[in-house]
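Minutes, project huddle
Topic: does the predicted pose make sense with NDP bound?
PN asked that the exact inputs be recorded in the minutes so nobody has to dig through chat later. Recorded below.
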Amino acid sequence: MKKPNLLIIGAGGVGAVAAYKAVQFGSEFGTITLASRSAGKLDAIAADVAKRQPGREPLKTCVVDAQQQVAVEDCIRELDAAIVLNVASPYCNTAIMDACIECGAHYMDTALAEVEHQEFVPAPWYENAELPRRSAFAANKLNAVLGIGFDPGAVNVFCAEAKKHHLDSIESIDIIDVNGGSHGRYFATNFAPDTNLREVREDVVYWEDGGFRTIPHHSRKMTVDLPVVGSHDVYSMGHDEIHSLSRVFPETKRIEFWMGFGAHYLKVLEVLNELGFLSSTPVEVEGVNVKPLQLVKALLPDPASLAEGYTGEVCIGCDITGIKDGQRRRIFIYSTCDHVACYEEVGSQAISYTTGVPAIAAAVLLARGDWNPETMVNAEELDPDPFLELMPEVGIGWQVIDLPLDGSWPSDRA
Ligand code: NDP
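Predicted holo structure (tokens), as shared on screen:
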């Protein structure tokens, strides 16, 4: 049977990891192409992938502006791409989804669609751009797997794993993301700065008692003590997962996303925010319209450039409570990832790595037909078993541990 051709759009930190892993699992696909606007980035990634994996089928490249639906359609048709993995900017999601529907290609992404300048979008977010397109994917028996990076992505699968194998019912889900690493720069974001800086300054949306709650950013904090990375302050933050998990598991009393931030990061963020540098609304500077956030993005280090010298590890997981066989149970399903090991393997930092690996594991499952919902889904709607079996083979292991029911974190953990 003909293997499906894979098109990866986006030549940033995540795109580079996805390209490397796709080539490593090249026997699962037909041709593999990386597309982006800048030929220079494509050539650099293709050369690096070829250097690290000599003897494998080389990565093809294609220049495309993925905000232009027709250009993406041309690209899909020319390459006869059957699976399109979107790891470009979230501003490209709608054009790429519509091109996939038009050309009959399966679609995957790692982040919700965004519209430039739009902030503080009311919940539920998937209702805006993604779910209105679900019937078109279903009518054409096409797969669209949304948000299949790590968070969102693998953590959504962890919730499906909890429901399928560890708990009869779920009471609360706390998704916790701690980057215990250090890149040594004064201030930088680990992925696309505009998306990252927008999401950390917006009001926090979380799910409680059957509805969405909104609170000011960084107003809810707790201290966790996670495997490998240890004790960290984490803050409640609005995130994609809350909007799909609450649709798939609406009976869950509380669903919340927490991210670790250090005092220095929060101070710089506050100053930038107070001065208006995180706004996407253009301001006129000597007759030129400048978007402050885009200016900040241009000045900050490229996330991919942080990889060299990045030390430490990340731990991302789901702290889930519920009932099993009539008893309350609390589990933590998680993965850890070492920045140095990622750099040695693929030349990337762990945030890009933890996003690219699940995306390619999911692409392999689509290519094999092991995941084939023939409609648009979030990862928690799919069978977690094949994914969690494959993800360690692609590059990231995972574990389940029991935690104390009183909400504490054991300090004697290895
Ligand atoms: P980067 O900003 O490093 O890279 C994005 C790339 O997309 C750029 O290199 C750019 O390349 C390309 N791009 C942007 N606009 C277009 C366009 N119009 N047409 C074609 N290509 C375009 O981001 P990351 O690689 O760090 O992140 C990629 C995606 O992954 C983002 O959506 C991010 O939100 C998501 N993400 C998800 C995570 C998860 O766990 N779910 C975690 C981290 C990131 P060029 O300039 O050549 O066009």
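Observations noted during the meeting:
- Residues 5-150+350-394 form a domain with the Rossmann fold fold (CATH 3.40.50.720).
- Residues 225 and 409 are 6 Å apart (CA to CA).
No decisions taken; revisit at the next huddle.
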